[in-house]
Amino acid sequence: MKVEELDNKVIRRKTIISFIIFFILITAAIFFWKWLRTQPQELGVSKPVRSMLYFNESLFGRFFSHNNLTKTYPLSAAEKNVRVNGNAGLSANFDAAKWKLQVVKNTGDTLFISIDEIKALPKTEIVFDFKCIEGWSQVTHWGGVKFSDFIQKYGLTNESQMTYAGLITPDKGYYVGIDMQSITHPQTLLCYEMNGAPLPMNQGYPLRLIIPVKYGVKHLKRIGTLFFSNERPRDYWYERGYDYYTGL
Questions:
Q1: How confident is residue 12, by pLDDT bands cut at 50, 70 and 90?
Q2: pTM (predicted TM-score)
Q3: ∠ at Cα 233 (154, 100), nearest 5°?
Q4: Is there a contact between 188 and 142 (Cβ–Cβ < 8 Å)?
Q5: Which of 36, 29, 31, 28 is nearest to 52 (CA)?
Q6: Cα-flanking dihedrals φ and ψ of residue 63, to 5°?
Q7: What does the alpha-carbon distance between residue 33 and residue 66 come to, in Å, rounded to a whole number?
Q8: What is the Cα–Cα distance from 146 to 218, expressed in whole angstroms?
Q9: What pLDDT score was predicted for residue 52?
Q10: Which residue ranges make up each domain of the chain?
């Protein structure tokens, strides 16, 4: 048998095997998809998918460290025209003159803190690549108070030992729950400035969350209430089928 004929036979055999494997995988994928669609739903997705999201959260949580910092950029790299994405929680009838941050303590007491009191704390600025879960990103410049400094100033050490923090807009239209490790990360800010100026109304004036270790859905605009819990607080996009952890 000639070498050329042998090579052709080998090629034909491998081609046939490849097509067989391809069709097996396609068939398996179709059956899996049909099976997945018959499974019970849990908060917008099937239970097997939600279980995988829980597993991913557990896995990422094990490796999370305050020593792992998000990459930062020089001020010159910051975008001047910052993208606005979503207005849930930013009701048009908001009265900024009456705004105060409400912090609910474990004792049941509530602190009412003005923006001037927050601005009196040491200021921190960060320029980082803000990432949206929709797939876009943008290098942006923010200024405010480290969440960890805020915790220390207002005697919230006991609260920070809990598992989660919850944040809600004044109109209660948007809300997030965040694991305590992430919200106390040294780059997390209670933010009152964008590009060196007060936050625009559509970016959460007078105070929003900037948390570089999370996707944008967790960067709640216009914080009205902050509280702490060992149970998962409600989360707007989690209730609509997204991952609760939403970490980078």
A1: confident
A2: 0.83
A3: 40
A4: no
A5: 36
A6: -100, 0
A7: 39
A8: 16
A9: 66
A10: 3-38, 42-82+97-240
